[in-house]
Structure formats: structure tokens, C-alpha cells
Specification:
Blueprint (H helix, E strand, L loop, with lengths): L4 H21 L9 H8 L3 H13 L3 E3 L6 E3 L1 H31 L2 E8 L2 E8 L14 E3 L4 H8 L3 H8 L15 H14 L2 E4 L6 E9 L5 E10 L6 H4 L2 H14 L24
Antiparallel strand pairs: 1-2, 3-4, 3-8, 4-5, 6-7, 7-8
Length: 280
């Protein structure tokens, strides 16, 4: 029998396609579907349908009713759906505010979310200036050396932060990168107190950024908005002059997501930005 790479790839892709088709059947209004019915609808054998269902159940995408034997959507599907809804809501809430922030600062502005020990940039507006940063939506970076990453780590629930920091050997991207988790803890405490985070040549030499929190209707920090650019324009005090506009942009997005600040207008996350001493 010819078991070539092409044949194996075709078989794998067919399995993925059948799994996708199977999951879509639950979008037709059926709360639960049995193996026999799924095999009929998909035009595949019952044994194949059973293997697909078992695999998807192992991954928590489906779950089986122990009494009827039928399958229904699992918790992981709801988590994925909530993530899609979150990003959709974020996109709608962010768009006008990011445009205003980019126009006001004339620098690159971004929105990032935390994924483990990395940040993922899900929204971006390019600087209109000739000298600007290069990047793209979907780009990832390590959290400990970015302003968005430090901001999001700082506002994690304490138990999640401990799990994230445990055993983490921080990559030293530049001579200015936070060297270890002890120093990172100190930096995160500063971020929590002031309500914003900064990065000057920590992830890449010559790049600086400043970030503020975005909160949902429950007050939880779910994303970070940042202003970024070359250190020629955003170094030390030049960077910190953007603290107020970026915090206010984060608060504006948060309000569009249903957040209500009960502290009488103080920006979400801490005290109002004040000028900071220049870094040596």
C-alpha cells in the first residue's frame, strides 16, 4: 500500500475537515446529537464519527451526556466563543479611540492582550511620521520586556501572577531588559501604583512605549493600549508626556466596554500620571 507523505497529509486534512463539519452541525439548533445521526449527516461511518467525537471530547470541545450517550458542545467551545466576542467588542470599542490617540500623538498606537507569558497585538494604528516602527496585527512579544506586557502582568489576579512567574527565566533582549523575576515583581508593583507601564529599549534597542489598562464592565483589566515609537522622540520625559493621553484613551475604551469608574474620574488603575524623574 502506498503510504506516501501526500496520502498521509490528505488523510489528516480530511479528518480536520470532518471535525470542522461535525462541530458546525451543533450550530443548527440541536443541543445534543448522537453518533448515528452525526454519521448520517456527515456521510461518514459510525466508527469514524465515534473517533472524531471521542477526540473532540478529550479536548473539551464536546462533552458526552452519560445517560443518553449523545454529545453537546463543551466548555472549551464556550471559552473560544467568549474570546471571539471579546475581540469583536474590543475592536468596536477601540477603533475610534485609537484613531484619536494616533492623531493626537502622531505615534504608533496598539492594543495587546496577554497570552501566557506573551502579549499579542490585536489592534494597531501606524504613525504618520517617516521614522516609525514596523509591526503587524497578530505579532507576539515577550511580556516582561514590553510596556503592554508589564501592564497586563501587573493587573493579573495574584494567584495567576504567581503561576505565570513560577520558573520563568526571563530572556535578556537588551542590556535594559528586566533581568529576573525579583526585579520584575518590583517593576510590576510600580506599575500597579502608578496605573501605567513604560518600556525604554527593553525589548529592542531604540524603541520606547508607554501603556495603560483597558477594563471590562466588571473592572477587570483585559487588554492594554500603548503608544510606541523610536527613542529619538519617546525617550524619558518625552515618553512620559504621553502618560496622561494613553491612560485617558484606556479609560475611554473601558467606558465603551461598560466600565464605570466609581472613584470620581481617576483614571483606571491608579493615580493620575505625574512627571517622573528622567532615567539615568
Amino acid at each position: 500500500m502506498n503510504d506516501s507523505p501526500e496520502r498521509r497529509q490528505h488523510s489528516t486534512l480530511s479528518s480536520v475537515r470532518n471535525a470542522a463539519r461535525l462541530l458546525k452541525e451543533f450550530g443548527r439548533g440541536d443541543r445534543e446529537i448522537g453518533v448515528t445521526e452525526l454519521s448520517r449527516r456527515l456521510g461518514i461511518g459510525k466508527s469514524t464519527a465515534h473517533r472524531l467525537l471521542s477526540t473532540l471530547a478529550d479536548e473539551r470541545l464536546l462533552e458526552q451526556d452519560p445517560h443518553t450517550g449523545a454529545y453537546r458542545l463543551g466548555l472549551a467551545m464556550y471559552e473560544l466563543g467568549a474570546s471571539v466576542a471579546l475581540h469583536t467588542d474590543l475592536h468596536e470599542a477601540c477603533s475610534p479611540v485609537l484613531d484619536q490617540l494616533r492623531n493626537a500623538t502622531r505615534e504608533t498606537v496598539q492594543v495587546a492582550v496577554l497570552d501566557g507569558r506573551e502579549v499579542v497585538y490585536i489592534e494597531r494604528r501606524e504613525s504618520p511620521q517617516t521614522l516609525r516602527l514596523f509591526g503587524r496585527v497578530g505579532h507576539r512579544n515577550e511580556a516582561h520586556c514590553t510596556s503592554t506586557g508589564k501592564l497586563l502582568l501587573a493587573f493579573l489576579p495574584p494567584d495567576r501572577l504567581e503561576v505565570t512567574l513560577r520558573g520563568w527565566r526571563l530572556a535578556r533582549k537588551t542590556p535594559f531588559t528586566v533581568p529576573d523575576t525579583r526585579a520584575l515583581r518590583t517593576a510590576l508593583e510600580t506599575v500597579r501604583q502608578q496605573g501605567w507601564a513604560e518600556n525604554i529599549s527593553e525589548s529592542e534597542l531604540g524603541v520606547a512605549s508607554i501603556a495603560a489598562p483597558i477594563r471590562n464592565g466588571r473592572g477587570e483589566v483585559i487588554a492594554a493600549v500603548s503608544v510606541a515609537g523610536p527613542v529619538q522622540r519617546l525617550g524619558n520625559d518625552s515618553l512620559r508626556r504621553f502618560a496622561r493621553p494613553v491612560v485617558e484613551a484606556g479609560l475611554a475604551i473601558s467606558r465603551r466596554l461598560g466600565y464605570r469608574d466609581v472613584r470620581g474620574g481617576t483614571p483606571a488603575g491608579g493615580r493620575r500620571p505625574q512627571p517622573s524623574p528622567a532615567r539615568p
